């Protein structure tokens, strides 16, 4: 495997019905192509050696002899390859004929898996020719001169991953064999199929594969018959589909006249991480025992991944933009509405800086007030200019509060901070952590005391990314009475605010656009000579898009720093140099571990996505754990 990835392929070869020698020669061509692309397992369609549409020719001894002879030829053609090859062919055992998958590697037959569920309705008549796997208790057979295991209780693995096999109709039944395969350890399911085309069937098939891969928390590789099969009554389009845990990774061109090899990389470590976290994913405890067939290591360790990774895994795709943003806001609003009503608070109090996070928090407060039928004046927004506040953020804060029709207050923190510096004997010209944190804590004190005065709740504005990095002043902006953004990472905050620009009046929209273009900053250090922001967060801790990427793969899947670095280099190739990515990953790891003590006592707040850092919910971690490091 390459950093936990296994390269697989669904092969759709050129085919002639009942011309076994021709068929295996074309299959061998695709095997050699797969070997060149470092594919570890290649799956061909159902009955691909003979063709699925041979019908009563399956009763002809000549076809059965030709099939086994062709299998011998395929073994010779591929003996020097290391890829595992799965082909479909009729297998004659005693007085029964089975529609079977034959697994080969290095010129040897490793095992044979017969089809369990035989369709025998509408255009299908498989029971006319074949016996079901349930009709046989045979454990081993002689095929191509080798004594090999036979049955549906076979898994194939090399110690790092394993796979199981089902055939076509097996997928369409209420409890597919693959459901049992994965509960006995299969990471990937290969399906050899011959699915004909009907109106609407293809979309249903894709959804079926996605759903089964999701239920099984598995990879799913589907190879279906295509060009060359008989079109006497039906047509086959050549579906090659590869899915991973509910997501389609790659698909073939349907109705192509050319052979196709659909290749993608399945992340075994990701699947195993999901299974480890899912308490309902329980290894089968029945008396059924599976047999594991040992695979030889393909030795394909280094290869450039075929699949691409989203740079912003927290951000929903643009096609789902409206629905996703509505849902996220609904979660935030629903959480705040419950808390507001339960506490019988007269007001909610929120500090407005003119930055992204406080803007999102304010929008949530406004939507909540509207949903509850409350006057927006019950929202008290407070701008608290300090030593680093710029005209740009100040004006945006003031104008946004005015445009949204809330109660607005302005309280400067400068005099209070200067008095505090005098009280603790600190030089105000020394712009250190005391200088910065004094301002953050003074603002929090103002918010808390005004909330007491106006029977209100202090609404936290800090986001998930800041919690991960510990980019908050302990008992300063770290603290609130309800933190509406605590489940929203920075990349998603920006996405939500951008979406909100289309939901408000033109005056508010213009302000939000400028907020989006303003550099992220706590504004705790004085502005530069031009009056612009001097303290830019991403210059200090690194780009949030990188940190959100690191956070997603570390917390969601438990990936090692080495694998996260591997994925990040792939996702951000061309945007950041490898050394830059590694630098900020080290920063992320150092800060994530060192700042856990802040997360151990954060306020309540709604979980929005698959990741949350609440110590009461998703994330429980000792505050003094040693940080992970990147392997050399």
Description:
- The model has no long low-confidence stretch (mean pLDDT 94).
- This protein is 37% helix and 18% strand.
- A 7-stranded mixed beta sheet has the order 13-12-11-10-9-8-15, with helices on one face.
- The chain is elongated and about 100 Å long.
- The chain has helices at 20-36, 61-77, 177-183, 201-216, 268-277, 321-343, 356-372, 391-404, 414-423, 433-453, 464-469, 490-500, 506-517, 537-540, 544-557, 561-571, 578-594, 596-599; strands at 5-12, 41-43, 84-93, 96-105, 108-114, 140-143, 146-149, 154-157, 162-167, 188-193, 219-224, 240-244, 247-251, 260-267, 291-294, 347-351, 379-383, 407-410, 456-460, 482-483.
- The protein contains 18 helices and 20 strands.
- Helix 4 (201-216) links the parallel strand 10 (188-193) and strand 11 (219-224).
- It folds into 2 domains: 5-294, Nitrilase/N-carbamoyl-D-aminoacid amidohydrolase (4-Layer Sandwich); 318-537, HUPs (Rossmann fold, 3-Layer(aba) Sandwich).
- It is α/β, with parallel strands linked by helices and 632 residues long.
- The longest helix has 23 residues, at 321-343.
Task: Summarize the topology.
Blueprint: E1 5-12, H1 20-36, E2 41-43, H2 61-77, E3 84-93, E4 96-105, E5 108-114, E6 140-143, E7 146-149, E8 154-157, E9 162-167, H3 177-183, E10 188-193, H4 201-216, E11 219-224, E12 240-244, E13 247-251, E14 260-267, H5 268-277, E15 291-294, H6 321-343, E16 347-351, H7 356-372, E17 379-383, H8 391-404, E18 407-410, H9 414-423, H10 433-453, E19 456-460, H11 464-469, E20 482-483, H12 490-500, H13 506-517, H14 537-540, H15 544-557, H16 561-571, H17 578-594, H18 596-599
Parallel strand pairs: 1-2, 2-3, 8-15, 9-10, 10-11, 16-17, 16-19, 17-18, 19-20
Antiparallel strand pairs: 1-14, 3-4, 4-5, 6-7, 8-9, 11-12, 12-13
Helix pairs in contact: 1-2, 6-7, 7-12, 8-13, 9-10, 12-13, 15-16, 15-17, 16-17
């Amino acid at each position: 495997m390459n950093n936990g990835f296994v390269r697989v392929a669904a092969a759709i070869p050129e085919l002639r019905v009942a011309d076994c020698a021709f068929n295996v020669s074309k299959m061998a061509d695709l095997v050699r192509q797969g070997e060149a692309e470092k594919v570890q397992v290649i799956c061909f369609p159902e009955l691909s050696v003979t063709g699925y549409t041979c019908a009563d020719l399956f009763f002809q001894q000549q076809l059965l002899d030709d099939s086994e002879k062709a299998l011998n030829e395929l073994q010779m053609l591929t003996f020097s390859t290391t890829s595992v090859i799965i082909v479909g062919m009729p297998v004659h055992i005693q007085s029964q004929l089975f529609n079977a998958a034959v697994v080969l590697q290095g010129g040897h037959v490793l095992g044979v898996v017969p089809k369990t569920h035989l369709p025998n309705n509408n255009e299908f008549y498989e029971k006319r020719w074949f016996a079901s796997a349930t009709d046989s208790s045979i454990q081993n057979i002689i095929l191509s001169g080798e004594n090999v295991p036979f049955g549906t209780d076979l898994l194939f693995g090399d110690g790092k991953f394993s796979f199981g096999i089902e055939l076509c109709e097996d997928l369409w039944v209420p409890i597919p064999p693959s459901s049992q395969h994965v509960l006995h350890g299969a990471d990937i399911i290969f399906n050899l199929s011959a699915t004909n085309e009907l109106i609407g069937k293809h979309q249903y098939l894709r959804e079926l594969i996605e759903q089964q891969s999701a239920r099984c928390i598995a990879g799913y590789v589907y190879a279906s018959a295509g060009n060359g099969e008989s079109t006497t009554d039906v047509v086959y389009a050549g579906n090659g589909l590869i899915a991973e845990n509910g997501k389609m990774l790659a698909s073939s061109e349907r109705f192509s006249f050319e052979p196709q090899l659909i290749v993608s990389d399945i992340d075994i470590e990701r699947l195993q991480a999901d299974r480890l976290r899912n308490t309902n994913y329980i290894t089968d405890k029945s008396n059924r025992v599976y047999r594991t067939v040992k695979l030889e290591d393909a030795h394909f360790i280094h290869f450039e991944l075929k699949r691409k990774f989203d740079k912003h895994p927290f951000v929903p795709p643009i096609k789902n933009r409206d629905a996703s943003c509505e849902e996220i806001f609904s979660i935030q609003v629903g959480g705040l509405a419950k808390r507001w009503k339960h506490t019988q608070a007269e007001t909610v109090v929120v500090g407005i800086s003119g930055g992204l996070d406080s803007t999102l928090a304010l929008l949530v407060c406004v939507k909540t007030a509207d949903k509850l039928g409350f006057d927006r004046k019950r929202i008290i927004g407070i701008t608290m200019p300090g030593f680093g506040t710029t005209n740009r953020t100040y004006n945006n804060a003031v104008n946004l509060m005015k445009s949204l029709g809330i109660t607005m207050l302005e309280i400067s923190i400068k005099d209070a901070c200067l008095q505090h510096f005098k009280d603790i004997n600190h030089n105000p010209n020394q712009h250190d952590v005391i200088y910065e944190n004094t301002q953050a804590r003074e603002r929090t004190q103002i918010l808390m005391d005004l909330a007491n005065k106006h029977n209100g709740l202090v609404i936290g504005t800090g986001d998930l990314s800041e919690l991960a990095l510990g980019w908050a002043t302990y008992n300063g902006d770290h603290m609130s009475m309800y933190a509406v953004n605590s489940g929203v990472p920075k990349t998603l905050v920006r996405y939500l605010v951008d979406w909100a620009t289309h939901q408000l009046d033109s005056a508010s929209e213009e302000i939000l656009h400028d907020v989006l273009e303003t550099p992220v900053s706590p504004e705790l250090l004085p502005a530069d000579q031009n009056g612009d922001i001097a303290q830019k967060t991403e210059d200090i801790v690194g780009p949030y898009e990188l940190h959100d990427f690191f956070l997603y793969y570390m917390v969601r899947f438990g990936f090692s720093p080495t694998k996260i670095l591997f994925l990040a280099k792939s996702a951000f190739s061309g945007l950041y140099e490898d050394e830059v990515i590694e630098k900020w990953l080290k920063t992320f790891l150092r800060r994530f571990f060192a700042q856990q003590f802040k997360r151990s006592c954060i306020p309540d707040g709604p979980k929005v996505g698959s990741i949350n850092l609440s110590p009461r919910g998703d994330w429980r971690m000792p505050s003094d754990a040693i940080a992970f490091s990147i392997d050399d």
